[in-house]
Amino acid sequence: MTHTPIAEGYGLTEASPVVSFNPLKSELRLDSIGIPVPGTEVRLVTATGDLAAINEPGEIWVRGPQVMRSYWKNPQESAQILHEGWLATGDIAVMDEQGFLKIVDRKKDLILVSGFNVYPNEVENTIALIDAVLDVAVIGIADPTTGEAVRAYIVKNPYSSDVINTETIIAHCRKHLTPYKIPRSVVMRDSLPKSAVGKVLRKDLKAEVQHEAQIDIDAQKPGF
User: Fold this and answer.
1) 131 and 201 in one domain?
2) Range of the domain at 19
3) Strand partners, 7
């Protein structure tokens, strides 16, 4: 549409304007944020603090001239993400054998099911393959047995005549996902909360779940 090459990159406010970029003269990689720009170091750190292996998910840590010195007048928040010059971004990625990076998900959105990591993006991408699904969001909810369970929020495609319900969603996921990644519950919605740029706000869905849980707790109190 633009009649010009488009290359994907990655940056964030705390490491502006860019951390990695797809080389313009190399083969186009649609699912990659490229390689670190000159003068920038990137490492992927696992939950145990070790360096991630090739194709193993880890949090992106960045060190370079574009990394901020600190948050303005907020030393506590700064200390949480700055580690001896390295910025812990909160983004989870994998690196292939050629050093190309691919974003997997946000660390804060990671779902722990019986100790296993579930990345919402993977489940969302799987469900989005269904023609009858217009929009989808996945979050983790509290579960007494597994710690957390996967919940999917679905907006039906109004132009599709296919039946879409909890059973069809779960049956589809069983074909493409390992058992612990399959949604335990499915909620049909007319719309999903989104930011001004159209990004689904998982935090708003999580807030709804927490609010509902608090109502249930209050309802069980004597004299409610």
Assistant:
1) yes
2) 9-106
3) none
- Domain CATH for 53: 2.30.38.10
**Angle formed by the axes of helices 166-176 and 120-127, nearest 10°:** 110
Query: What is the total count of domains within the chain?
Result: 2
Residue by residue, pLDDT tens for the chain (224 residues) are 889 878 899 999 999 999 999 998 877 788 899 999 999 999 999 999 999 999 999 999 999 999 999 999 999 999 999 999 999 999 999 999 999 999 999 999 999 999 999 999 999 999 999 999 999 999 999 999 999 999 999 999 999 999 999 999 999 999 999 999 999 999 999 999 999 999 999 999 999 999 887 766 666 777 65
Residue keyed to tokens 């099911």: 113
Is 170 in the same domain as 155? yes
- Considering the domain architecture, whether residues 140 and 99 belong to the same structural domain is answered as no
The span from the CA of 97 to the CA of 57, in Å, is: 14
0.70 exceeded by pTM: yes
Which of these three, 47, 74, 106, is where a domain ends?
106
Buried/exposed code over 184-218 (b: 16+ C-beta within 10 A; e: otherwise): bebeeeeebbeeeeeebebeebbeeeeeeeeeeee
Residue 77 neighbours by CB distance under 10 Å: 12
Asked if the structure places residue 141 within a domain, the reply is: yes
For residues 68 and 60, give the distance between their C-alpha atoms in angstroms, rounded to a whole number. 15
